[in-house]
Amino acid sequence: MRDSYSTQIFRVDGKNSFMEVLNVAFPIGKVQFNFVEYDEKTNKQTKKLDIYMDVLQAVALAERILSGDFAATVNAAKAAGKFNGMNVTTYTSFFTDMGGISEEKVAKKLEEYQKQYPFVKEGQAISRQFKIQTGSKYPWVLRAEYGPGKSSDTGLIVPQGNAPVYINLPVDADSFYKMAVAIKYSYQAYLNQYYAKFGDKLFPNEKVKIFTPGK
User: Fold this and answer.
1) What integer pLDDT is reported at residue 1 of this predicted model?
2) What is this structure's pTM?
3) DSSP per-residue codes, 123-185
């Protein structure tokens, strides 16, 4: 059992794998998702893919899940056979968040990255994607992908071809909902503490006017 001060706010387990959500990147405006595979016999980690999603993107996704809007969008797309102008298939991603490591940062640790990910070549970026798909036995599949990438003019790292490294984690509806709850309310708690601690610095000239009945 994890301790009371763990940075892990959510975890869901699959076959020889799990996905955890951490709050450690809140201060830089990110939510961290770790996808991990391990050897069942030795319990040793065999693969780990970290995803960093913009916190407002993650909270917006959580709101859509909790309101039922996300499921409704998926169901409507399946009924129409189209999503974002493309045919719906077993591999359709109904949510995709793109990020990664720029060419400059990869170049600084090229040998290290090449040992971890053999697909990495000099001059390339590393694309990291978080996707939500649907499954046959489970309603949802959370997917992390690493592959070759290229930085766009806006700084977005765009994947180049298929991702050779990935982890799929099927989840049930209850776990999917709990993930959204964990993200929404953990970040809300973080903001409450942030404003309580730094309110005088954030709003140094603000004066609170208290209304007193009868005066």
Assistant:
1) 41
2) 0.89
3) T-EEEEEEEEE--SSSSEEEEEEEEEEEE-TTS-EEE-S--SEEEEEEE-HHHHHHHHHHHHH
